[in-house]
Each structure stands twice: as C-alpha cells, then as structure tokens.
Amino acid sequence: MKTRAFLSTLLLGFTTACAQMSSQEIVQNENIRQAAQNARTYSDHNALTSYFENAAREMQTKAEEQKKLLEHYEEKGYLYGRQAQDLKSHTAALVRKYEETAEENIKEAAAHRLMALEQAQANLAVHNGAIKEPRREGSR
C-alpha cells in the first residue's frame, strides 16, 4: 500500500510538472516580449539581461531535477511496470526541453548585455561631447 501511495504522489508531481503554461505565464511571456521590443535604454537592456539569466538558471534547475527523476526511473523501472518506458521517454524529453530553453535564455541574455553595453558607450560618447546630440525643433 505504501508503494501505491508513493507512486501516486510521484505521478501527481510528475504530471503537474508537465502541465501546460498557466495564463499568468502566458501574460508574463507576452510582457517580456513587449519589453524586449520596446527596450531602448541601458537600464532596459540590463533588466532584460537579469530576467533572462534568472530564467536560464530556473530552467537549468528544472533540468537537473528531471535528470534525477530520470535516473530514478532507470534504476527502479521495475516499480512502474508498463509505464516505466513512457516515464523515461517523457522525462528525457523534458530534460531536453528545459536545457534548450535555458540555452535560448542564455543567448537572449547575452544579446541584451551587448545592447546594454552599446547603449552605455553611446551615452558616454554623448556625455563626453564626442557626439553632439541632435538639435531639437524650436531650440537654437
């Protein structure tokens, strides 16, 4: 009976980990996409860099958790009967998905870090007078 309770708990945790994105996550992803499109300043790009680095760390953590679960399934597959192979396959797919997402987030963070650096250099050049700011209409 304890084994059934353990398996039920494990499978429940497994299925919740695989659930589709919630509406809150969808809204957050849309907000980040908008923020990335509208980023113009050093602080905008710096904030996006931090966001993507944190997201990458989170995905790497999830991948590690799934790797441990996969290892468990491989070692104790006999506990899961016919479902063992499905659990292994699904968990391996999640590991790949999380690792790919982490890599995408790392690339995105690097791109925004570069844009932040470019913006900072442009601001410094304007501040030091190397580049004159364009005149605005109505000012002489």
Tell me about this structure:
The chain is mainly alpha-helical. The chain has a domain of 87 residues. Helix content is 79%, strand content 0%. It contains 4 helices and no strands. Helix 3 runs antiparallel to helix 4. It is elongated, with a radius of gyration of 23 Å. The chain starts with a helix and ends in a 13-residue tail after the last helix.
In a few lines, what is going on in this structure?
With 140 residues, this protein is mostly helical.
Helix amount: over 70%
Regions with little confidence, pLDDT below 50 for 5+ residues: 5-12
Rg from alpha-carbon coordinates: 23 Å
What characterizes the major β-sheet? Answer: none
User: How are helices and strands ordered from N to C?
Assistant: HHHH
Mean pLDDT: 81
Question: What portion of the residues fall into strands of 2 or more residues?
Answer: under 5%
Ends apart, CA distance between termini: 85 Å
Task: Categorize the overall geometry.
Answer: elongated
> What is the strand tally?
0
Helix and strand content put the structural class at mainly alpha
DSSP helix count?
4
